[in-house]
Specification:
Length: 222
């Protein structure tokens, strides 16, 4: 029975990953360099997850099944975002974020503390606009924290004229006035600001200080 379970897990993981590869191969040629970099980063991330999954299959098949399920959800969300030029519901974006965070929790354990403060979710937003912010907070925050742990908070709220989404962390942060060491982060933030401005008429505000963390707030007018 255990061998059957492991085979099913492996087939599901490979099927999800292969579908993702095919979609990316067809999509890459139509994107500019920042989008290519983002997608290639996801490919490396996917490869890492498959390695983790293979290790879990040997010792914790039940957990491996859960990991595969979350992994498949994450990849499907990426594919859906590629195929949809329109806005999506925040609920869909939130499911994508939760799948991503689940997988990162599997890797980092108690070193990653993620909290949701969701007051409203009945609005639309460009696909893959919030998940990359959470990803940046986790990956780059973890890299710069000497003690190894990081707190990331995802918040939403509503005011009379707008919806708000905020991602904040207590990671390494950066000085907005200095030349960035990792230009991908700043290119990503610039692209996000343009997408929110063009698609929603909204704004993106970034505040950050070295060794104190980063906060990104998205405003979506009603």
């Amino acid at each position: 029975m255990e061998n059957v379970v492991l085979i099913q897990i492996a087939l599901e993981a490979w099927g999800a990953f292969w579908t993702f590869i095919c979609g990316v191969a067809a999509y890459l040629g139509r994107q500019d360099e920042p989008h290519r970099s983002k997608l290639l980063t996801n490919l490396l991330f996917a490869d890492t997850l498959l390695l983790i999954n293979e290790q879990l299959c040997k010792t914790q098949p039940t957990k491996a099944a859960s990991a595969t399920h979350q992994f498949a959800k994450y990849l499907r969300s990426n594919l859906n975002a590629m195929a949809s030029p329109e806005q999506i519901s925040f609920r869909e974006e939130l499911e994508h974020i939760r799948a991503y965070v689940w997988l990162e929790n599997m890797r980092f354990g108690e070193d990653l503390c993620f909290r949701e403060e969701i007051q409203v979710d009945s609005f639309t937003i460009p696909a893959l606009s919030v998940q990359p912010l959470v990803e940046n907070s986790i990956k780059h925050g973890m890299m710069g924290k000497e003690e190894g742990n990081i707190h990331v908070v995802l918040s939403t709220w509503e005011e009379n004229d707008a919806f708000y989404v905020r991602v904040s962390d207590d990671g390494c942060g950066f000085d907005p006035h200095e030349k960035p060491k990792d230009t991908n982060i700043h290119i990503g933030l610039f692209n996000l600001k343009e997408r929110i401005r063009i698609m929603c008429g909204g704004t993106v505000e970034v505040t950050s200080k070295p060794n104190q963390g980063t906060t990104v707030t998205i405003q979506i007018p009603k």
